[in-house]
Design brief:
This protein has 270 residues and is of the alpha+beta class. The strands form 4 sheets. Strands 1, 2, 6, 7, 8 and 11 form a 6-stranded mixed β-sheet that branches. It is globular and about 60 Å long. The model has no long low-confidence stretch (mean pLDDT 95).
């Protein structure tokens, strides 16, 4: 039985990230009805306060989705951080689960601070020059076992994006409308050669920040590019077509022929 993720193949490591994402999507699906109700009527005068609201809702959704916890703490600039044991067919692995929430009136990209970036990134700017940004998330956190042997808890980075539109004079008294919840699994650094081998094969792009004001470097993740690189790494829970208040329970995947699929799944109420 493996306990060190570094002994896994890249495909086995991808399976860890896919299983983690699947659990988070399930949790968000089951909380989506309540999340929509709260998100649409809670006052939040500024865009930054709407993001705080999204952070709270993400935490509420995930607080019932824990597996066997490890009593350790991870220090980092991520909204939701949990150290835990993750059971997989390849073994039982210690994991640092990192989930950050975003909220925006656009649905094509997310901006990450360097401290949230799990993978060394490089991309070509509009003027043709190459930009590089080193990962700010450590690949793992080392813990000492009872016998003194080290255990490396692999970091897994997920981003939850609340896509909404503002409302004015809504008859139902809503302040905004929650349209979709996107869930992104940005790959671990060991998978860079697979997902970002060069500046022209990438889902990254330039993020807005001001070095003159001492702002931390930022980078953008573009949804369509991430989906093209690996369909299951971008999930979309949409309220469009919903008949019971929940998002539509559809999981994006890829079949043996390399075609993208959308498969329904069952879920429970909260």
């Amino acid at each position: 039985m493996h306990q060190d993720y570094r002994l896994l193949t890249d495909d086995e490591h991808e399976a860890i990230e896919k299983q983690t994402l699947r659990m988070i999507v399930q949790a968000l699906q089951q909380y989506s009805k309540e999340a929509k109700e709260i998100f649409e009527v809670t006052p939040a005068p500024s865009k930054s306060e709407v993001i705080v609201l999204a952070e709270d809702l993400t935490q509420y959704a995930l607080e019932v989705a824990e597996v066997y916890p490890i009593n350790k703490r991870y220090a980092g600039f991520i909204d939701y951080k949990r150290v835990r044991w993750l059971p997989t067919p390849a073994g039982l692995f210690p994991q640092v689960l990192l989930v950050d929430a975003k909220a925006s009136t656009e649905n094509g990209r997310d901006t990450l601070q360097q401290s949230q970036l799990p993978m060394d990134a490089e991309y070509r700017k509009a003027d043709g020059t190459v930009e590089q940004l080193r990962a700010g998330v450590f690949p793992h956190m080392v813990m000492a076992s009872v016998t003194g042997q080290p255990l490396a808890a692999v970091t897994t980075s997920i981003f939850v994006h609340f896509y909404y539109r503002d409302l004015v004079d809504d008859p139902a008294g809503r302040i905004r409308e929650l349209l979709d919840i996107y869930v992104l699994a940005v790959p671990h650094n060991r998978l860079k050669a697979r997902y970002n081998p060069n500046p022209d094969a990438t889902f990254f792009g330039a993020g807005k920040h001001s070095p003159a004001r001492g702002e931390e470097p930022r980078i953008r993740v573009y949804f369509t590019r991430l989906r093209a690189a690996c369909p299951w790494r971008l999930q979309q829970l949409t309220f469009a077509g919903s008949v019971n208040g929940y998002t539509l329970p559809l999981w994006r995947d890829i079949d043996a022929a390399g075609n993208e699929t959308r498969d329904p799944f069952l879920y429970l109420s909260r």
